[in-house]
Give the backbone structure.
Amino acid sequence: MEAIKASGINQTVFFYNPNIHPEEEYLMRKNENKRHCKKLGIKFVDCDYDTDNWFDRIKGFENEPERGHRCTLCFDMRFERTALFAAENSFSLFTSSLGISRWKDMKQINGSGERAAKRYPYVNYWSFNWRKKGGSQRMIEISKAENFYQQEYCGCVYSLRDTNRWRRENNRPRIKRLVKFY
């Protein structure tokens, strides 16, 4: 949000994350975003939690690895909805903070954003490199200062499953969440 503000861009946060499971996790992450937006005076748009559509889109790719095709499908779905919102509400530009994570493939994220933007003639995707110039470190500083909830997995039920598998293999405690499988 600091980088966007420094670039002189008027911002709105559009929260569309039907991939985050379970709902308890989704609500924690959404409420952290709302809280921070309120503090900074940034408009927050809460989109539907349409998990059925997400599961339909991911069907058949449940065992793909992190950064695999399942993630591309997930990013595509979320960016398509974001680009539609941008077009319907006269926004000329959208971006995502997904790229700040070292666990994500920026090329994969930016590809999804650029494909979604191409659907609308006046909407562009900003493929800003959030990791450059200390961006990742700044994210950590802000997270600590704001006492943000620290997520322990990407968000989807399959990343939770895979994270717990890794934790078990490395003698680490399991992340416990009540998850509904579809």
